[in-house]
Design brief:
- By secondary structure, the chain is α+β, with helices and mostly antiparallel strands.
- The protein is 15% helix and 34% strand.
- It has one domain (38-203): q2cbj1_9rhob like domain (Jelly Rolls).
- The protein is built from two helices and 15 strands.
- Strands 1, 2, 3, 5, 6, 7, 9, 10, 13 and 15 form a ten-stranded antiparallel β-sheet that branches. Strands 4-8-14-11-12 form a five-stranded antiparallel β-sheet, with no helix packed on it.
- The longest helix has 19 residues, at 84-102.
Length: 207
């Protein structure tokens, strides 16, 4: 596997008040991280082929609601769907990035991997967070870019952090990882089709 871990461009949140009676230090959690060239073109093609062979359904928002905020087709892929190799690869990537940038107590991808198809002219997912009440504790989210960036227009994954959104790279095999409480969106696909693989890594409640 040809991969590279690259630190993100955000400062760890470490501060301490001058009054010792009110000493307070925040955890040095980064806002996002990424891994280049995590999967080859051939491997991305293989995942797309597997995903397109599975039964698709309309993407839902929280609590199983089909909403205009999200327009996509999805299929669930599990290790038994000839995907064990991809699960092992993503496990290594997530654990490495978590050790370096997040430090969360993680269980695993308990919900499976979601193969997602955003198709023009209306494929999108408006601003949202992946954490939800009354469900498994999602701590990290990841997106694997499967499509060639020349195959579609629009469809950018944007993380809304601060006053200016951070747009993730579009290269095939690129993995973006971020805390599941970060606000993000997939902008409308206006031409072509964008394929991605996403999931949420669960763990104990934040303390």
């Amino acid at each position: 596997m040809s991969a590279e871990i690259v630190p993100i461009r955000s400062e760890p949140l470490t501060r301490q008040t001058p009054n010792a009676a009110w000493a307070f230090k925040l955890d040095p959690v980064h806002t996002w991280a990424y891994w280049d060239n995590a999967f080859s073109d051939e491997e991305c093609d293989r995942i797309i082929e597997i995903g397109n062979q599975r039964t698709h359904q309309k993407g839902e928002t929280g609590n199983g609601v089909v909403s205009n905020i999200r327009q996509s087709d999805i299929a669930w892929l599990y290790a038994s769907d000839d995907m064990e190799w991809a699960y092992r690869r993503m496990t290594d990537i997530i654990m490495s990035l978590n050790d370096r940038f997040f430090g969360f107590d993680l269980f695993g991808a308990a919900e499976g991997f979601q193969f997602t198809k955003y198709q023009a002219p209306s494929g999108k997912y408006g601003k949202h967070i992946d954490s939800m009440q009354g469900t498994l504790i999602r701590k990290l989210s990841f997106t694997l870019q499967l499509s060639n960036p020349d195959d579609y227009v629009g469809g950018d994954l944007r993380l809304h952090i601060g006053s200016k959104p951070q747009t993730m790279k579009r290269e095939r095999g690129y993995v973006a990882v971020f805390p599941s409480y970060v606000l993000h969106e997939v902008t409308p696909v206006t031409k072509g089709t964008r394929y991605s693989l996403v999931s949420w890594i669960t763990g104990k409640p934040f303390k």
